[in-house]
Design goal:
Layout: H1 47-59, H2 64-84
Length: 95
């Protein structure tokens, strides 16, 4: 009755060639180099906390030019989207 049972995965005892037992952390752990400086990475909290942390990261970013550039790009994309769906843009301009 092997049809209903799942196969077990094979286990390998693999150690990387250049892994030093005294090294920091696991060699298999994938970690971004800026994760230590960001609040949004790590904790699995609620949606409201994630959004608040993202806004705090955005506000406290020392590179203000990058923030301005992102806002300009978002505004241009929204304008292009409104033009594509034939939204009446004349309500934004007075006569």
């Amino acid at each position: 009755m092997g049809l209903l049972k799942l196969r077990k995965n094979k286990r390998y005892n693999y150690t990387p060639r250049f892994y030093d037992d005294k090294g920091e952390g696991s060699p298999f752990q994938m970690k971004h180099k800026f994760d230590a400086y960001r609040k949004t990475v790590g904790s699995n909290s609620g949606l409201k906390t994630k959004i608040n942390n993202a806004f705090d990261d955005f506000k406290n970013n020392p590179d203000r030019d990058a923030n301005r550039r992102i806002l300009i790009i978002i505004a241009i994309l929204i304008l292009v989207f409104l033009i594509i769906i034939d939204f009446d843009l004349s309500i934004f301009f007075s006569k």
